[in-house]
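In this supplementary section we document a worked example of the pipeline. Step one takes a protein sequence of length 188 as its only input; no multiple sequence alignment statistics are reported here. Step two produces a three-dimensional model, which step three serialises into structure tokens for compact storage. The input and output of this example are shown verbatim.
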Amino acid sequence: MNPVEHFFGGWALANVVPLTRRDRALVTIAGVIPDLDGFGLLPELLTRGTRHEVFWWTEYHHVLGHNVAFAALCTIAALCLARRRLVTPLLVALSFHLHLLGDVVGARGPDGYQWPIPYLLPFSGAWQWAWSGQWALNAWQNVVIMVVLLLLAVGIALRQGRTPVELFSTRADVTIVAALRARLYSRA
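The serialised model returned by step three reads:
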């Protein structure tokens, strides 16, 4: 799955129970943060074909942030930062692991490479989580998942009065919710 799907998935999960905006942000971030290990893409592209080529994305994406140690670190951070000290860390751990599951089932590259998840790192590299039926990143299944997540976001906006924009700007969020409600409720 792509980072946008992970973001919307984490935000939808953050809205299954009443949480503060801060706690919703923690759960949402946990759904995206494993991809922090993709930091090397730009340097890799910029150095391609040079004498000083780096392979930071090739070597570290789906490695540094896609493992049990990083999941534990994120969960502990949520435990320290959350207002709801039990529910939020549990949702953070779930959001993180849903990211990994999404990558296992739907992140095959255009070249056919399947991104295995070295889940037990740094404790062991002996086992990697993979699925032979992994669909491509741009497959119809991911498109359907994204459409469902967008519809969920609209539903949450209409019922609970917030959108994922709340994580960046409460003022813009209020404006978007008002526009959605005006547009969709005026037709009813």
